[in-house]
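Translate sequence into structure tokens.
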Amino acid sequence: MNKLKGAAHTFGDNLNTDYIISGKYKFKTLDMDELARHTMEDIRPGFYDEIADGDFVVAGENFGAGSSREQAPLVLKAAGVGAVVAKSFARIFYRNCINVGLPVVEVDTSGIEEGDVLEIDVENGVVRNVTKGMTLETNPLPEVMMKILTDGGLAAHIKKNGGCFALDDEEQSE
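Result follows.
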């Protein structure tokens, strides 16, 4: 996975999945492109129009609490979000992001401001704030999660590997 680059769109702590995609839309359609238009609209109307493809959602603690539905990370991905960067994540949301192929980085975000340009190396656990000339390091994602992300998500990974999970090509031939 290459380095990701985009602008930071900042949010606070305890942002739950109903803020990511309001419950009033979750059962009206399964069209992620349509749902993406409503991303974050309850707390930041017009957010969908603010983001460019590859930009980052940057938040504080406990990002993605609430519902365990995959719609929240799917909507962020459909909106063009390149990765979610937060101090901490709700466990199910974090794993759902990996499962749908949306990179997540857990790092101290207190020095990142709205509009800062970031470069993210998910594989090596490095977030570089280009705007401020600051580098943040975190634990890189485990190999298994990197493989799932590189393949485009869990379903794509399993499809690619003939219906089974594999860390590398050698495992497929065993």
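Note: Residues 170-174 have pLDDT under 50 and may be disordered.
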